Amino acid sequence: MRFACEQAHIEPDIVCLSKGLTNGCLPMAATLATEDIYQAFYSTDRSKTFFHSTSFTGNPLACAAACASIDLWEENNVAERTKTLHDHQAALLPRLAARKDIENVRHIGTIMALDVCNVRQGYLPDVATKLYRYFLAQGVLLRPIGQTIYLLPPYCVSQEDLNFIVGII
Fold first, then answer.
1. Is the pLDDT of residue 60 over 70?
2. For residues 147 and 116, what is the distance between their CA atoms, to the nearest angstrom?
3. Residues contacting 48, CB < 8 A, separation 6+
4. Whole-structure pTM over 0.90, yes or no?
């Protein structure tokens, strides 16, 4: 699976894609739509035009990078690697859930999240800044948002590195 909507068994009418198309190497974006939506805007009448575009579409170099990225995804069996990463993360959940200062440990796909207990809720508590500095000092780049710590490792992360990161958390 490449998209969260597939995992959620949802077929969206519109999908907007960007960074992942080129693996973040070059700016690239695409907006995909169902045939019904496409036809609703397909007209020579400008009043029906779907005036959405971005300067990040159609660049030949970015398109070539996107095609190469898709090829690499398939050639390197990234889908299997993400499954392995998912399984490694799932095995670490009980270790985090057992802590008294952490709550709401959750995991989907290759994303893990947890909340620090007993801190002000929202995006602005001081704990986020303190945790960010602590993680960075330990050699781990994580960016807490509010009281929530997100772990979104690259697909090439080793189990050893994942254990290290969770140990730092």
1. yes
2. 5
3. 40, 41, 42
4. no
Cβ neighbours around 29 below 10 Å, total = 20
Copy the structure tokens of residue 99.
Answer: 């802590």
CATH of domain 78-168: 3.90.1150.10
Taking residues 139-146, what's their average pLDDT?
91
| Angle, alpha carbons 103-106-108 (nearest 5°) | 170
- Range list for CATH 3.90.1150.10 in the chain: 78-168
Nearest to 25 by CA among 54, 67, 78: 67
Residue 123 pLDDT grade (very low, low, confident, very high; cuts 50, 70, 90): low
Return the pLDDT at 68.
92
Between the CA of residue 88 and those of 39, 92, 94, 118, 166, what are the distances in Å? Answer: 44, 7, 12, 28, 11
